[in-house]
Amino acid sequence: MAELVFFSGTMDSGKSTLALQMDHNHRARGRGGLIFSKLDRAGEDMLSSRLGLATRAHEVHDDLDFWDTVVEHATSGQRVDYLICDEAQFYSPEQIEQLARLVDEMGIDVFAFGITADFRTQLFPGSRRLIELADRVQVLQVEALCWCGKRATHNARVVDGVMVVEGEQVVVGDTQAGTETLVEYEVLCRRHFMRRMNSAAARVASPSPDVLPFDLEICPVPPA
Ligand SMILES: Nc1ncnc2c1ncn2[C@@H]1O[C@H](COP(=O)(O)OP(=O)(O)O)[C@@H](O)[C@H]1O
Ligand SMILES: Cc1cn([C@H]2C[C@H](O)[C@@H](COP(=O)(O)O)O2)c(=O)[nH]c1=O
After folding, report:
1. Ligand 2 centroid to 171 CA: how many Å?
2. Which of 16, 31, 44, 90 has the highest CB neighbour count under 10 A?
3. 72: annotated active-site residue
4. Taking the model in full, what pTM does it have?
5. Structural domains present in the chain
6. Is the CB of 55 inside a 6 Å radius of any atom of ligand 1?
7. At what angle do helices 125-133 and 93-106 cross, to 10 degrees?
8. Which residues are annotated as a binding site for substrate?
9. Dihedral angle at the C-alpha atoms of 94, 131, 126, 169, nearest 10 degrees?
10. What is the mean pLDDT for each group of 10 consecutive residues in the chain (224 residues)?
11. Quick count: other Cβ atoms within 10 Å of Cβ 24?
12. CA–CA separation, 82 vs 72, rounded Å?
């Protein structure tokens, strides 16, 4: 039975790596697939992982219709057994519905990968629809970690070192600070997310590296 599976996790939890591995494993067994992504850090028409692997992908523009795209490939003789859909949080709810229809009416497996919530803890519309429609939501096994060592559950946006909770929902960026990067992201546990305490704020509150990680019960919260 074909399935719509949503592999979700925070940023940096290995989703794109898993997407590439799944494509490799299915292809190695003779299945044919199509790879999609949207706004990948490596640029248009790419699916890339921080481990260094990357592949060409179909860019999911706002007007892309998954049903029409698959029908086009299939009628030109290409075998389509499965779809790999990375950065699925950025897809529209209508596009997620097209993916569900491909599973139900064409028997195509759809493996979608993405973060669920934005830097304000609000669900992306695409992720919300995936959670509503997926046969399974699978949380990634590799846990990204907060600076305190706890499992990271939230994606924080950091601008010039300061965690922010207002702004546009979509701003492409990385968890690695780049020299020219204005916006970066940091994964945090819920407690530190709620206290708006990213690693830079924690360092200011307790400048000696010897005392990190520390217990926040005895640590003052820096002013917002
Ligand atoms: N130099 C490295 N050595 C080993 N693993 C790494 C290295 N750099 C990144 N990773 C792994 O890659 C993961 C991020 O992979 P990626 O697929 O890009 O994540 P996501 O798509 O979820 O943002 C990290 O959580 C880490 O496990
Ligand atoms: C939290 C959050 C993230 N984004 C962007 C930043 C990255 O480009 C992607 C996530 O990619 P990853 O492969 O999971 O690291 O999403 C955003 O636009 N808005 C946000 O709130």
Report:
1. 7
2. 16
3. no
4. 0.92
5. 4-139 (3.40.50.300), 154-205 (no CATH)
6. no
7. 30
8. 170-173, 185
9. 150
10. 97 97 98 98 96 97 98 97 98 98 98 98 98 97 93 96 95 78 91 97 78 47 46
11. 11
12. 15
